[in-house]
Amino acid sequence: MAAPAYGQEDDEAGEPSAGEHAVFVTARRVAEAQERVPISLDRLDAADLERRGIARLADLAGVVPNLTMPTIGAFGAQQPIMRGVFSPIGASTIGLYVDDVPIQIRSLEVAGNPDLRRFDLDRVEVLRGPQGTLFGADSMGGTIRTLTRQPQLEGLDGQASGEFALVGRGGFSREMQAALGGAILPGRIGMRVSAYYRRDAGVIDRFDPASGGLLTKNIDHDAALGLRFALKAALGERLELTPSLFFQRAKRGDLPFYESSLGLFRQTASLRQPGHDRFLLPGLTARLDLGGAVLTGVTAWLDRRNRQIVDYSGYFGEIILGGMVPGIRTPGGSYSRTTVDQTVFTQELRIASADPRASVRWLVGGFYSRSRIAMEQHVVEPGIADLAQSQLGLSIGEIFGLPLLPGGLSYHSRQQIRERTLAVFGQANWTFAPRWEVTGGLRLSYNPLRFRLMSEGPFAGGSNAVGPRGQSDTPLIPYAGLSWRPGGDSLVYLSAGKGFRGGGTNGAVPANSCAADLSALGRAAAPDSYGSDSLWSYEVGVKAGLPARRLHLSLAAFRIDWRRIQQSVTLPNCGFSYVDNLGAARNQGVELALRSEPLRRLVLDFSFGFVDARFRRDVGLPASAIVAAGDRIPYVPRWSGTLAAEYGFTLPGRLDGFVRTEWRQAGRYRRAPSTRSVAYDPRVYSGEGSELLFLRMGLGRDGWQLSAFADNLLNSRALLYRNAELVPVTGSPLREMAQRPRTVGLSASFGL
Q: How far is the C-alpha of 383 from the C-alpha of 387, rounded, in Å?
């Protein structure tokens, strides 16, 4: 439940008809009052994001029930999970949008989605459940929409803000952002420009692996710079054009992992592990008033580049020597250098009826996208030649049958994924009786994919070339719903919808070095490709408002039946993996949001989410199962919730103030699906629950505000990540990540 945000966004067809204090969303691609949308959703406007300390996309997971965003893999990539619909690889299960442009990336375990920041946003809408009819195949679990502030054709407005904070055990964090917009030619041309910079202090200290001496403090700091520009031009009375440009650059000093044997926030990596992510999104939106309908066209080009370094100095000792010499590392250090380039062209054209009071309201459209992902990895470790000779008395050629590649490379790969999507879609709402409405939608897509991989080096088992391999899907994605408005702000609804995700192809898995692992799974070789997976979701919900009692309730219950799930199969001894379709699952749960005002200016918010997500049948051989019936889907806590209280007051001198406290908690989860899995590691199997307490206070008047805050007030240190991907079951230290320590700070903002 978001705090009240009065006003209206009319960025789609028509003027919605609703109460005086309605809050509007565009969850169904047209502006509607939130309480009349038969979807379980959360809406957070700019004030909500600021008061709840949501600085980046990952922070949403703490405030939206049944949404998690765990770190997946040794490269630090984060992946959103909604209602337990999780798969660590393949196409995304959650759609991520900037305005009307999809920007999600396939789950590569190397580079996750762009780390979007709270920066000149109008609001964020989180839509739970499959949204494939209106948002495409990658929204089978839900969709997250970040909607930016748009240029205005009248008046002038501007904002500037800054933040300064001290992180426990770390340094100082700081943030600055500013925006200015207004009419250049009143009624005809408007412009908006904004800029953002934030640097978050690190908390991890790096020590010398040989002497144990401190090398560098707070190595895991990160920084982000963002720029936005948009121009709106009204050409005549019917046509409106809005070209825009969004640029963001993020850098990290090091991965935020520490080693379990050293205690909290200490690590002894042989090398620094920096990362760099650059994101560019130019676009053009056109709206044409056709009288009885509005035609909208959205064209965009996404260009993203991600670069990372990860320490591999312990890889040879663990994989090849099997951990026989604890703590041994490659002389001079070894590292993986990965680059991911993503380019996507998208074009959407849709037309929607303009009268929100009509008994039949409709929307039809077409969508086209062309994407290319190129990922390249170099594992550089010239020192392993000396290490192999000193420990085994053998050369690299004698161990692997192949020498190192030029430059000391033990592994080099380059893969390229090209995808196209061509889709037509439509949805209609029919008010067939007073207070009753039926909704029907359908999307038909054609999704061809082509894959090519080259790998070489001793760790690749020689020189391999895969592809071009290709596959295609032609999914039909239906949706149906029935809603009833008994009166006032109340709504009761039922819905059923399908979610879909396209398949893909696998890279090369060396048959010789991985023969034992594959044999344990009953395979002679890894599969060349994996198929699509799909789900059906059934939801019943109630939204009820009692204005006289200052009470609002939102409750939704759901069941999801998911089949042919795409999951990664890890081969623990040879270090490779492949993707396969691993059986079926059933996810069942509820979301509850309750908002009340028991006293004037005192607001209480409570939200709760519960999901029981389990595999329904055994997959794999009895002696080496991949998953077993009844196993919980990994990375999905069974419950999560928030409890918040905010009190507003007025001081002499017309000063308005507030005090807000918020408690967030999430339950335990599993990092692996089964104790029977061939890759089972008891050290990393279970994930801890977490809890956080936030406090914020502020004073302001006439457009300015000064606030003080404390995040993680109780200094909770629950483990958010624990993994042994580069250190198998040999007793070596694990890579871990804990919640950021207590952070206290001040922020100030001023608006025109």
A: 6
What's the DSSP call for residue 460?
A: G
Asked if 394 contacts 375 with a C-beta cutoff of 8 angstroms, the reply is: no
Contact 88/72 with Cβ under 8 angstroms? Answer: yes
- Which pLDDT value is given to residue 679? 66
The SS3 assignment for 387 reads helix
CA distances from 166 to 257, 641, 697, 745 (A): 20, 27, 17, 6
CA distance 662 to 5: 19
Instruction: Please name every residue paired with 284 in a beta bridge, in sequence order, or none if there are none.
Output: 243, 299
Place of tokens 């690749």: 460
Q: How many helices (H) and strands (E) does the chain have?
A: 6, 48
Per-residue pLDDT tens over the stretch 360-402 = 999 999 999 999 999 999 999 888 888 888 888 888 888 888 8
Radius of gyration of the chain (CA): 26
Coarse DSSP helix, strand, coil percentages of the chain, rounded to the nearest 5 percent: 5, 55, 40
Reported for 717-722, long-range contacts at CB under 8 A and 24+ positions apart, including other chains, are 717/264, 717/741, 718/688, 718/689, 718/690, 718/691, 719/687, 719/688, 720/70, 720/71, 720/690, 721/70, 721/71, 721/257, 722/260, 722/671, 722/683, 722/684, 722/687
- What is the per-residue pLDDT for 590? 97
Q: What is the dihedral of CA 120, 256, 322, 402, to 10 degrees?
A: 50
**Residue recorded with tokens 């509850």:** 592
The answer to whether the bond into 468 is cis (omega within 30° of 0) is: yes
- CA angle at 472 for the pair 522 and 419, rounded to the nearest 5°: 110
Rounded Cα distance between 221 and 272, Å, is 12
**What are the phi and psi torsion angles at 162 (to 5°)?**
-150, 155
Per-residue pLDDT tens digits for 581-604: 878 999 999 999 999 998 889 999
Q: Which helix (H) or strand (E) holds 400?
A: helix 396-400
Hey, how many other C-beta atoms are within 10 angstroms of the C-beta on 679?
Answer: 20
Mean predicted confidence (pLDDT) in 608-617: 93
pTM over 0.85: yes
- CB distance 284 to 255 below 8 Å: no
CB 360 within 8 A of CB 352: no
Question: SS3 sequence, 701-747?
Answer: ECCEEEEEEEECCCCCCCEEEEECCCCCCCCCCCEEEECCCCEEEEE
State both tokens at 265. 């926030």
